[in-house]
Each structure stands twice: as structure tokens, then as C-alpha cells.
Predict the 3D structure of the following.
Amino acid sequence: MPQKVQSSLSFRKNTPGRRMASVRQNAQYEGQLYSFQYTSYGPSPTKKRPNIDKQPLLLLAYRGADRIWKAQNGRSYIYGFNLNYLNPHRRLEVVEALIEIFRTKPGQSLTYQQLKDSLEVPTGLEDSIFRKYDIRGSKLRKLKEVNLDTYVDYLRRSLKTRD
């Protein structure tokens, strides 16, 4: 199980980004970084399981050429790496590395394996930050695409005031 999510919920809710109607929207931008409010459900819709992170910062991993994939159960999901599970200094390093990747290869969509290999993010059973999110109904709300340059400035300012 990941360590407690770093940084305050207020910080995560105020992550700068451009609002999107849905993840199915065909917006193309460099970075594939999303912020959203997420509610997970337990075995039945009436029994909620507590969220570990109610406001994920997801580095989207493509599955083939698709940002959304349909599982055998018929549900649609997005998946990727929830950067909120990294401590803020490591998160800053990862975002800076992403900026460099997209500067050298503009418009590139990265798969799970490419992200794992190039960013060296935790993927073991004990420390994985890899997550999938069901996009049905009201589970995923207040979706924003997050510009990497804007986010790195926001994170740096936050770290300066915290240190």
C-alpha cells in the first residue's frame, strides 16, 4: 500500500489546469497529465470504500493508441501513474524529466512500459503508484488537463514556501 499521499488536498484541488468536459474529449496536448476528483465504490454502489487520494494527479499511460480502454467487464478505464503518491521533491524530478522528454519528442504518447522505463517510477507490489480509474458516471469529476510547465512552477512555489 502506498504511503500517505503527500501534500494537502487544498494544494491538489488548486492544481492549475484547463477544464475538460470528459476524458473522451479529443484534446491533444503534450504531457498527458490530468487532475480530477475521484470517488471509488466498494462491492456495491451503496457501500463506499474510502479513497486514498480523492484528487489524483494522473500521468496517463496509453494502451496501444488508446487513452481509454474497455475491460472484459464492459467498463471503461483510464490508467497511469498517480504522481501524488510520490513525495513532492521526487514528483518535481519526474515532471521535469517529462518536460525534457516532450521537448525532445513533441506530441509523443507514452505507454506504461515507456513511462516506467524512462521515469523510474515505483511499480513493485508494495510501492506501485500505477492506478486505473473507472470513468463511468459521477466517479470521475472536475477533470483538468495539466500543463507540465505551469505545474512545475506551481510545485516549485509550493516547495519553497514549505521549506
Observations:
- Residues 42 and 49 are 5 Å apart (CA to CA).
- The longest helix spans residues 88-104.
